[in-house]
Amino acid sequence: MKKFRIWMGGLLGAGLLLGAGCRQLSAPEPTAEQLAPSRIFSSHMVLQRERPIVIFGGAEPGGTVRVSLDGRGQLVTTGPDGRWRAEFPARPAGGPLTLEISGRNQTERYDDVMVGDVWFCSGQSNMEMSVSGVRNAAEEIAAADHPGLRIMTVEKDATPIALDEPLRVRQWERVSPETLRGFSATAYFFGRDLQQKLNIPIGLIHSSWSGSPIETWLPLTGADQATPQERAAVEQYRRDCEQYVTGRRAALKRLFELEREVNQPELAALAAPDADSSGLRDVEIPCQWEKTILPGLDGMVEFRRELTLPASWAGRELELELGAIDEVDRTYFNGVEIARRGNSETGETGYWRRPRFYRVPGKLVRPGRNVITVFVSDLAGEGGLWGQAPMRINPLNDPDAAIALEGTWQYQVVVRVPEAPKLQGQSRTVAYNAMVVPFFPFPIKGAIWYQGESNAANAARYRQQLPQMIADWRKNWGEDFPFYLVQLANFTNQRRAEPRSEWAELREAQRLTAETVPGTGMAVIIDIGEANDIHPKNKQDVGHRLALQALAKTYGFKDLVCAGPEFDRAEFRGAQAVVHFKPAASPLRPAAPLLGFELAGKDGKFHPAQAEIVGDTVIVTAPEVPAPTTVRYAWANNPECNLFNQAGLPASPFTSGKIFPEP
Q1: What is the mean pLDDT of residues 369-390?
Q2: How confident is the model at residue 421, as a pLDDT?
């Protein structure tokens, strides 16, 4: 079995590589006592059709595991690295199937398993943007009844060394109004089009991170170290990483255990009215701890508030309002758990903006001194009791008697998840290690990518990085799968590039990647952005245009027009530039006037130009440029442009000049 590496000058990350050498055994019964199937597997999942089906996970070295798919079983042994793997023959699309994974005293059963096509969906905030944030969101969510479309979200995680297992995922679900709201809109609309056109199960794995540059989705390669000092720094970084991941795993294991059990004894002891409070410190609530008391902390924090209640409240049911809590809470009253929201282990973390409204049973309410304890877990973002709504307690149906809970509380850290070490102040490769690498053993059909805003300041570097990323992902997944990307939308009020447009340059890097890297394609959305919102709400067309690329290029629907006019070359004839486009099934759509074209001569200064469609070309002229040498189109952050084909798809921005070195 393939081992996966984090590349640091050719060095292997220690102790965290995917396992090798799982062989089929003849022993009749499994022996593994520490069975841990990969979190990638759950009921309702989709396995890739027409590829060998690979099931994998962890257990103690030498332990045997029985894996059965739809009644066909095999026994495999765990390698020295604690990883096991079972492989089944490829299947056509279909299902449902049942998957069972067994150790000595444990069996995990997954039902409603389908076989179809799986797409990996990644990028930054525009890929992360959920269906709840798009135009017509309520209607889209209400209409989302697609049992053949399955979704899974990888929760944000960052590790500086490659992992064999995603630390947190939101498990596979069938698309419905109840499951869709928080899922990636771009991925959903893409998958919905595919599933409806192909009529086979489609699985979508959403793994993105708002604001992330492409560097965090790339491995750390030998090219990143040039000097002896840099190589020495990488060596130390590797050693720090080994300690970090060991500590992180132990801390997360403890946090998950504390959250899992209702009235968990350790938490109940900390929440008891007579608990030792010598380690507690004061804090003003509401607060977000990373901005105030605990910068950089991921983990679990106890917040405690003592209050004196009137004798008339004793034995009465109370209403407790705690405002919004970021992210997961376990709330106690006088040492007894009364409510809980969220789960860090399973990725149920969408409650961070939601105020908490809880009931306190009357049997827990005493006259005089009472204690409220809230255990808050947060693994990404600020964390804490951050208000945004009233915080108070009062007898049921008697809000006029409420006691305000804002003010001085006490706190202490219960679980501290170690901070990741940094290399030269960079966050390179950390999402790749935690949110991509663990999926390499899991066969997929292809990937879609919506990212680039965070790299617009260095488009020349992005021109190198995007092809590198595609090549690395394909190499490690073991297949040259199709890869479709979204070009940056129009944004801001910049109508002309004066003196330059970083976003236009980034779009050109994306266009050239899609043009030169085999098996790729690009959805152009220069017409559906919003000047004042970097997250345009029309994700329906984004997903649809990605789906057109896949349906035409991957699935062979030749009758579909999948792209707008695609620049081929420019001819310069005296005062004219003649722009040629690649042969296409849909001709250019007439427009008068045709906007967005500019010309430059040898001096390199661009001027707005007049443009006219003549057959399948565009003739461009400008009085200020009698001898043009370069033509460009839609070259600004938010250009005025209107070149479409008759299928209604826009032309990509382009320049005939070479602005980047070859990758």
Answers
A1: 92
A2: 73
